[in-house]
Each structure stands twice: as C-alpha cells, then as structure tokens.
Amino acid sequence: MDIQLVIGAVIGIIVGAIIAYFVVKSMQSKSANSIVAEAKKDAASILKDAKAEGESKKKDKILQAKEKFIELKSEHEKVILSRDKKLADAEKRTRDKESQVSSELSKNKKLNKDVEAKVKDYDLRNEYLEKKQEEIDKVYQSAVKQLEVISGVSAEEAKAQLVETLKESAKTDAMALIQDTIEEAKMTAQQEAKKIIINTIQRIGTEEAVENCVSVFNLESDDVKGRIIGREGRNIRAIEAATGVEIIVDDTPEAIILSCFDSVRREIARLSLHKLVTDGRIHPARIEEVVKKTRKMIDEEIIDIGKRTVVDLGIHGLSPELIKMVGRMKYRSSYGQNLLQHSREVAKLCGVMAAELGLNAKLAKRAGLLHDIGKVPDSETEVPHAILGMQWAEKYGEKPEVCNAIGAHHDEVEMTSLLSPIVQVCDAISGARPGARRQVLDSYIQRLKDLEEIAFGFNGVKKAYAIQAGRELRVIVESERVNDDKASNLSFEISQKIQTDMTYPGQVKVTVIRETRAVNIAK
Asked: Of the given ranges (6-20, 98-112, 427-441), which has the lowest mean pLDDT?
C-alpha cells in the first residue's frame, strides 16, 4: 500500500514537472514574439528617421554644390574679363608700336636720302680739291725750279743749311734754359729738403739715452750678499757660470753690480737674482733651474715686445720671425745706442718724411723699423748687416721697395725706389743726434765678442764668457771630451791665439773650467 502511494506520488511529480515545462516554454515563446515585434517597430522608426535625415542632407549638399558652382562661375568670368582686358591692352600697344615703327622708317628713309645727297656733294668737292691740289703742286714745283736757277742752290741743300742754322740756335737757347732750370731746381730742392728734414726732426721727440754695460741690483739688506755668494763662493760661481755675467760684490751698501756687454745675459741674471732673493732658496741646483726658466721667459718677452712695437707703429702683416727679430732689438745696441729705440725713431722719421713727400707713410715706417734687423744675430758673419737684413726681408715676403731700402741704406746696393734715400737720411738723423751714439762702447763690445769667438773656435768648448771688461775669459768645457791635461793645454792655446790675433790693452786671463757631475736617481 505504501509502495503504491510512493509510486503515485513520483508519477504525480513527474507529470507536474512536464506540465510546468510546457507552461514555461509557452510563456517564453510569447515573450520572444513580443520582443521581435517591438524590434521591428523600432527598426521601421529608425529607417524612417534615417530617410528623412538623408533627404535633408541631400538637399543641403545640392544647395552647397549650386553655391560653389555659382562662385566658380563668377571667378571664371572675372579671369576671362581680365584676360580679355590684357589682350586688348596688348593689341593697343602693338598698334602703337607699329605706328611708331612706321614713323621711324619714314624718318630713316628721309635721313638716308639726305646722307646720299651729302655723300654725292662730298665726292664732287673732293674731286674739285684734288684738281686744285694738282695745280698747286705744279705751280710749287715751277717756283722751286725758278728759285734754284736764280740762287744756284738746290732745294735739299737750302733745306739742310736752314735746319743746321736752326739746330745751332735752338741748342744754344736750350742749354741756357736747362742751366737756368737746373740752378733754380737746386736752390728750390735744397730749401724744400731742409724744410722737410727740419719739420720731421721737430715733430719727433726722442730720449738721448746711451746703453751701458752694467746693471745695479738693489738689495733689501747687506745680509743677502752673503747668501748670494754662498759657502766658499759656490753660489756666485754657479750664477756666473749659468748666465755668463760677472757679479761684483763690493762695499756699496745694499747693492751688487752685474757686468756684461750682452744686455740679454745681464737681464737674465738680474731677473734670476730677483727670483732667487725673493724665494730665499739659493743653491747651485736652484740657480740653474731659475736661470733656465728666466731664459725661456725672456724669449717670450722678446716676442711680446716685437708685437707691441709693430702695433704702436701701425704696421700690419709682419712675419712672426721678423716680429721676433724686432723684439730682440731691445737687447742689442749700435754704437751705444739701443737698437730698438733707434729703429722706432727711424720708423717714425720715415713715416713723417714720406707723408711730407706724398709717399706711402706705412711702407716707409715698415722699412725704417726693419732697416737694422741684420744686426740682431749673435753669431758674426762676413755679410754686411744691410745685405743680411735685405735677405731676411726677401725671405719673409716683404715688398721689393722695403727690401731695397734695407739693403741700400749704407749704399751696399743700388737704390731703386724713393723709400731708400728716405731711410738712409732718417738713419743718419737718428744716429747723428748729440749723445745718441758712442763709438768707444761699440769697439769695446766688439772686442769682447771677438774674445768669446776665439774660445768657441776650439773643440770641446761648451760656453765662453768675457768678463771684467775683457781682462778675463772664462771657458767652460765638456768634461766628456776634455780631461784635466787637455784643459791646461786648452788654456795655453787660447791665450796664445788671443795674443797672436788680437790687439788689447793690458793682459787677458784665460780660465778653463771643467766640471764633472755624478747623478743618480733613487726610486
């Protein structure tokens, strides 16, 4: 009984589930149909709206196209009107040109007719004149023959006599005129030359300083003298050996004297002493280091002096080598006159004189500054300094006028330009001033240079310095090439050479110095 109830209940449940399934399905079908219907309705509405909007846009586009067409049509009509106007103007200009050309053609035809008439008239006149000339020639020949018969002399002989008479008369008059002109020119030229030279000298003011051979080095106290001398004089010997300058330490308070004929050596020694005294470390190794640095500094200063000089004088485009030579002039003297000061003075004189004569003042200054560069080198040469300076100027691209002025200022070569006599005159003016030069000093310096040159003529000589006004010659030799015995022989040979080749007052002491150094480095 219970089982039947269970089975009935199960069957009831199944039947209920089936009925519920079909009910749900029928409900879903109805919902889908309604959704589809609504979707179709919405689609129809969207299509309707889209058609309406498309029609509206279509109308707008048609209107825009019509407006654009009207606008393009208007522009096209304007272009056509402009082109028609231009064509009309061109046609008008063409017609005007045609009328002008036709007018010119008619004028040319008329002128051609006039020219033809004048040519015809000229031919007739020329023919008439030729006939007249023939008649005149016949009459002239007849007259000449009659005169020859009457005088008994032919026409050629009479002509020759007349020419000879006129020639002698003209020669006499010309000689008198030439003589008067020459005398007048001499008087005028002398007056003008004196005037130009006086004006030039008056416009150039210069100092009358003469170079000497000593420099005074001032000290803060006399205690420094002992440090400069060093133990057993080793410091002062090291300074003299490194610089070639004689250092005189005497009773003069707070000063020592540096003596040397070479102003470059003297300046190197002065600056080196200043550095050593300021630094306080004075010993042979330090002395050699400071002298080496000072020598390099002097070389740089020489270049700087040359640059400042050419800038002050307004000279441009000068070769660097020539600028260096100009700087070295500061440490050279000619007959006691500072070479750079002399060259600057000559350059200014040349510039003023060239301006007075209407010549190139800048080129004259250039020639005046460079006229004595042949005196710059340390080594002696057989070539005169004017020729050597001219060769250097040619080598470094100076103009021919400048080169000739340098070479001709002592008449070694022929003068080929007006700058040459100007440089020669200005050189004489600068050297002839009272107190400008001193002949004795120049011969003294030359004697000291000759002493050093004799020492350098022997093998193994490294350095040679003439000191004590030429009364002593110190020779430093290479220790590897000259031993102690050879050093003694070398001293004797040099003294004999000096005694044979030179003329000098008193006696000359020859000191040969041989130094051996042993250097090692601890690492």
From this structure: 427-441
Q: To the nearest 10°, report the CA torsion of 194, 195, 199, 201.
A: 0
- 3-state SS of the chain: helix, strand, coil percent to 5? 75, 5, 20
**Three-state DSSP string of 118-179:** HHHHHHHHHHHHHHHHHHHHHHHHHHHHHHHHHHCCCHHHHHHHHHHHHHHHHHHHHHHHHH
pLDDT at 54 over 50: yes
Provide DSSP, 388-456: HHHHHHHHTT--HHHHHHHHHTTTSS---STHHHHHHHHHHHHHHSTTS--HHHHHHHHHHHHHHHHHH
Indicate the pairing of strand 337-338 with strand 333-334. Answer: antiparallel
State the residue for tokens 């000879």: 164
SS3 220: coil
Within 10 Å of residue 179's Cβ, how many Cβ atoms?
10
* Lowest mean per-residue pLDDT among 60-74, 131-145, 156-170, 232-246: 156-170
What's residue 212's pLDDT?
54
pLDDT greater than 70 at residue 304: yes
Residue 273: name the closest of 216, 316, 322, 223 by CA: 216
Instruction: Read off φ and ψ for residue 464, nearest 5 degrees.
Output: -145, 130
Q: Cα–Cα distance between 134 and 132 in angstroms, integer?
A: 5
The SS3 assignment for 218 reads strand
Structure-token pair, residue 25: 């399905």
**Using an 8 Å Cβ cutoff, are 284 and 311 in contact?**
no
User: Residue 463 pairs with which residues in a beta bridge?
Assistant: 476
DSSP string, 464-484: EEEEGGGTEEEEEE-TTT--H
**Angle, helix 439-456 to helix 484-501, in steps of 10 degrees:** 140
pLDDT above 70 coverage of the chain, percent: 85
How many residues does the structure list for the chain?
A: 523
- How far is CA 321 from each of CA 9, 209, 297, rounded to the nearest angstrom? 134, 28, 17
Question: DSSP for 23-65?
Answer: HHHHHHHHHHHHHHHHHHHHHHHHHHHHHHHHHHHHHHHHHHH
Q: Provide the pLDDT confidence category of residue 175 given band limits of 50, 70 and 90.
A: confident
Given this model, what pLDDT does residue 193 score?
A: 61
Query: Considering the chain, what is the average pLDDT of its residues?
Result: 80
For residue 372, what are the CA distances in angstroms to 104, 328, 406? 76, 11, 7
CA trace torsion 274, 279, 285, 291 (10° rounding): -30
**Facing residues of 337 across strands?**
334
Continuous segment of H or E residues that includes residue 229: helix 223-229
pLDDT(156) > 50:
yes
Distance CA 392, CA 322 (A): 8
Contact 456, 440 (CB under 8 A): no
Tell me the pLDDT tens digit for each residue of 438-462.
545 566 777 888 888 898 989 889 8
pLDDT at 30 over 80: no
Asked if 258 and 245 touch (Cβ cutoff 8 Å), the reply is yes
